[in-house]
Every structure is written in C-alpha cells, then in structure tokens.
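Request: Give me one sample?
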Amino acid sequence: MGASMSQSMQLRDDLAVIARNIPAGSRVLDLGCGDGELLSWLIRRRACTGTGVERGPDEVLGAIKRGVPLIELDIDSQLGMFAPDSYDVVVLSRTLQAVLRPDLVLAAMRKIAPRQIVTMPNFGYWRHRLRLLNGHMPRSRDLPYSWYATPNLHHATLVDLEPLFQEVDLKLERRITLSPHGRPRALGQLGANLMAGSAIYVLVRADQDPAEL
C-alpha cells in the first residue's frame, strides 16, 4: 500500500519542477490543467488551494476524479472573470503555444496573480531544426502532433519568447531548461536555445516589490 501510494503521488518530471517553485499554502490557478495532476498534488502535499481550468472532455473527467476544483472556460476570452490578485500563482503549462493571443493571455495572468509559471516547448531545439532541414515539420515529446492535427498555433524559440514577457511587464525571475524527456538539463543555461526541448519560466510583475511575493 505504501509503495502504491508513493507511486500515485509522484509527479511527472516537469510538473515536479513547477511544484518546487510554488510556495506551500499558495492559492493556485492552473490554466490548461489537464487531468489535474499538478493541482491535486499541491492540494494534498503542499496545503495549497486552487482552481483548474480545462475544456478537454477526457481531461475534465480526470480532474474531477482527482477531486480538483474545476472551471470550464475559454482561456483566450474569459480570464477577465477572475478578480485582480485573486490567486498567488498562475500556472500555464504547455498551453501558451495553443492560445490565439499569447500576449493577451499573459497580460491577463499578470492581473490575476503576482507570480506566473509558464512552460513552453522550444521550437529551436536542434532536432527540430534538423527535421526542418530535411523538409519535415518538427515532432517530439513536446511537439507530438502531425502538422495537420496539432492544436499549437504558435511556435517560438527561447530567444523569441523571452522579449514577449518584457512587453507585457513581466520580469523573468528564473528559467529552468528541460531535456527532451522533461527533466532539468545538467548544463543548465549553456546552449539552451539549441539543446533544450522546453523551458519553465518563473515570472513576476516587473513593478512588483519582492517583499510582497
């Protein structure tokens, strides 16, 4: 039973990295929460409270089974329903590339919470570049779909993405680059735009007093 419980509460590698950057007791809004794995873990293990946002039928069912508080809404158009500073942290994991206007979504997140955590696939990863040179659209663990079936609307390299944060008045507090398997890279930031499969960004408001975080 102990081994079974331990396994059931073990987070996916990239989600574990996100969880380490969320203080215990935080109010968390998880946009595109999938089956609620992260939020369920935070509620059970870190005394957090929060809400998941998801629209996929299978994912919604999975989150409900985990007992995660859930709202079904359109991230592109309905984030205004959340009051300013109603959460401490907003998480947007593997979702920014699938929204219509990433800049507007980030700006809305900035109002909802003083801290944001964003995960984004790196279109500049060397294997993606090689596939393009060979005449094919990139596919990987972080970009698993065929070109005709992908939900992703935007593809960005790390160096393309980071100026967007500045445009919406978000300051980069920490960047954790991940291997293609979703684990933190041993070489950290070295050659990240070429070698990282994806990256996790911990962001705060540009004008935020650090003492208030």
Notes: Confidence is low (pLDDT under 50) at residues 1-8. The CA atoms of residues 53 and 73 lie 7 Å apart. The longest strand covers residues 170-178.
